[in-house]
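All the exercises in this workshop are built on plain-text protein records. A learned vocabulary of local backbone shapes supplies the integers on the structure line. Once this layout is familiar, the rest of the handout is easier to follow. An example says more than a description, so a record of this kind follows:
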Amino acid sequence: MNGTYYISTERMTVGYDGKPLIENIEIGVRRGEILTLIGPNGSGKSTILKSMIKQLRLIAGTVVLDGRDMAGLKERDIAKKLAIVMTDRIKGELMTCRDIAATGRYPYTGRLGILSKEDKAIVDAAIETVHAQDFADRPFSAISDGQRQRILLARAIAQQPEIIVLDEPTSFLDVKHKLELLDILKNMVREKQVAVIVSLHELDLAEKISDRVVCVAHNRIDRCDTPENIFTDAYISELYGIENGSFNALFGSVELPAVSGVPQVFVIGGGGSGIPVYRALQRAGVPFAAGILAESDLDYPVAKALAAELYEIPAFSTATEAACSAAAERMRSIGKVLCTVPAFGETNAANKDLYEAAKEAGILTGADAFLKGVEA
């Protein structure tokens, strides 16, 4: 990977009507790299992107594109290097989706904008890349927001740029097409060494796709680092000011706050089997106790976030007699037990003992039946 930034900012200050919002911004992205902006709504992510691509006038500083000050470059020259996919609505009356995608070739055509046979082939390939062949000849004004987003990406691909800037490109897409779009970007980065700057709300996607992450908050660039260093429970909670709930770095997702109160049921889980039940109980407003879980167990982080009481042991350790006794006593006092574990291995002997004790005491109930009763 080239160590030189393909596009970068030097002491850039952005804002509106001459009033600074964020000052002295210095970020950059290399070819073959994805740089992602995250942060709370209104923090300035879109303002930064619009200022970098000249949609907003800089208050101060410089944007350097391929070693040259963008302020001195002609629009056509910029368009041959940089493509844009923004959330702003574009007017496409009387234009088909193919017509919109074809505008990506205009930097390369003559004044009349007439596409050559080669240009048309490039547009067709771009439409195929975003899987939009089925509606390519429909009016752009007659398709869904998600389909429009795919066409705008096709237009950007048709430009054959060296950098793509995208502002919330997954906003109107369903899960399938979100993954397809990000896969397309990742392939372009890997195969064509395109540089990508993107802003995202979906933290799980940002964590998976980014090479580096820029965190925007409190009228400043709060941090710029690798996903491994950014996506921690503590930092994401601080960045977004999460108070009612928590961020789960393991799953790249947020969890709602635990239901407070005296536990109404004890859940024997483990290996990921308890997670759907923990979340179902939380949705139903049922406080619960969970255990015995090692800190290394897949269930542990969700149980930690959602359980009113958690019986836990250190990672990769065996439950002590004291821990087993405490969990068993609490289980019997609650009087209702759900077991989500399909089978117990040698390392889970403590929970097998809990299961057998609950069964013998007649307090074991099926998770499905219990949840249906709660919902009713």
